[in-house]
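JOB MANIFEST
job_type = single_chain_structure
chain_count = 1
residues = 437
[input]
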Amino acid sequence: MKRKLITKLLEWKESNTKKPLLLLGALGVGKTFLAYDFAKTFFTESIYINIEREPDFFSLVNKGSDKMDDVLKEHYHVTDDSGDVLIILDEVHSCPNIKLILNELSNSKFSLSILILSSIWDETIYSCDYFKKLFLYPLDFEEFLVAVGKEWYIEVITFHYNSNKKIPDIVHQELLALFELYLQIGGMPQAVNEYINMESTINVPEQHKILTYSYLTHVNKSSSDSNALKINQVFDVLDKQLMKENKKFQYTLIRKGATGAMYSDALHYINNSFYGIRCKKLEDNLIHQYNLKNDELNNESAIENHFSYEDDNKAIFKQYILDIGMLNSSMKTQNDYTSDNARKGLLENYIALCLLVKGYPLYFWESSSQAKIDFIISKDNHLIPIEIKINENTRSKNISVFKTKYETVEDAIKISTKNFEYSKNIKYVPIYASFCI
């Protein structure tokens, strides 16, 4: 399955850096498959070591790169004639001495590149310049089109996004239908492969259940009983939070009397294991600072921002889930799945993922008069409000209220089922073209 991130992996290889590459992503998102595909295509040899399954690897290694070279030679058959070798270390968060091991690998006499895979964010290990960091997300709509053999649409979408010209209506309707299919399936490779193999969505919800069960099983194994219970309770209400008219996270929806002090650790775990996506409220006094500060954002800085938490007893935020297909299947089990509020939550969730993939930190804004901006991004040193509508009716006062309050804001984006258009400094973007933003 072709992933866009392969380009970034290749850039890292060709940079000839000894800095290890850290590939972060949720369980089931396809990190191992991507690593194998990368190794097979661009390296002479590869060695895959899963730290959770091969703890004996570290008992073989003593301090000193000469000992590491002995281990590589005797146990993994690396020689001076091996050429470029990719070392893939999986689930490294379970290894307390990982930096020591990486240092020894980096000093090896062999020609090694080190690719690290992790499904848990560990600030004590990863929040430093020792690693080059990349994040693997579920397939977005662009990658989904490639996976289902409809990649020719991508050039069409990109051209019309850049030109603001309307796509012919028949193609526009085809793309809206394909996007609805994507909303059902989502971007987890297991679900996408099920659809491709079966040529039907009939078993896709079952795949979503399996993915959820696998994740929660991992939670129960890796957490204490009390923490696991809280994580399960929070995870169980994420869909309900997004089906409300007010999408801001409410602890009382977990259970009566619940507070941030009780459940912030559970939320942190869900986000740190990449199954959650947090969107923070941007306060008025930080608007101009944000505009200047975040002009040159990249994927790595967005990741760092994503894991910086305020005091959860005071923080105002929205909480999204990693995969739109899993959210959709979960929402369908609720009574008000067909409501406009549920639809809005589903679309917001997808846009959050699109923006995070492009490296934008996630913020929303609202005024005391209840004007709401779903997302705010900074691009080319300009603040851009983004509003999402569930159909072709894009009329609202939200953006005009925001522009009146902040007169330096010129451009805005409205995302809906409406065709491409540009009018009065507002760029109208069809929901299927959100990956272009």
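[summary]
The first helix runs from residue 6 to 14.
Residues 292-300 have pLDDT under 50 and may be disordered.
exit_status = 0
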